[in-house]
């Protein structure tokens, strides 16, 4: 009997599946340029990178339970930090 192991491949679509993610026009300008191909980043999959940025900013700004425990009141500080992180 041979057991074949499968490996899940992450794609831009799978990363954002089931998430009400921020749109590209809600990302910092540099990410909008990456999405449109107007900025060189040295990565072959721009759609994947932009999806990661969308996921990061969404989770940082929507009060996601994975990040913010009930009663933790530093969300606005985290939102600002998330934006600053994506703006380079």
What does it look like?
This protein is an all-alpha fold. Helix content is 47%, strand content 0%. The protein has helices at residues 12-16, 29-36, 46-61, 75-86. Helix 2 (29-36) packs antiparallel against helix 3 (46-61) and helix 3 (46-61) packs antiparallel against helix 4 (75-86). The longest helix has 16 residues, at 46-61. The N and C termini lie far apart (52 Å).
Structure at a glance:
With 88 residues, the chain is mostly helical. Helices cover 47% and strands 0% of the residues.
Rough outline: globular
Q: What is the percent of helical residues?
A: 40-55%
Main beta sheet strand tally, sense and closure: none
Termini separation comes to 52 Å
Q: What value does the Rg take, in angstroms?
A: 16 Å
How much of the sequence lies in strands comes to under 5%
Number of helices: 4
**Uncertain spans:** none
Task: Give a quick set of tags describing it.
88 residues, mainly alpha, globular
Per-chain topology:
Layout: H1 12-16, H2 29-36, H3 46-61, H4 75-86
Helix pairs in contact: 2-3, 3-4
């Amino acid at each position: 009997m041979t057991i074949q192991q499968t490996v899940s491949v992450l794609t831009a679509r799978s990363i954002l599946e089931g998430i009400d993610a921020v749109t590209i026009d809600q990302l910092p300008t540099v990410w909008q340029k990456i999405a449109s191909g107007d900025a060189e980043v040295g990565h072959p999959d721009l759609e994947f990178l932009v999806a990661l940025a969308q996921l990061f900013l969404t989770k940082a700004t929507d009060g996601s339970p994975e990040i913010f425990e009930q009663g933790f009141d530093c969300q606005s500080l985290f939102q600002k930090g998330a934006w600053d992180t994506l703006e380079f």
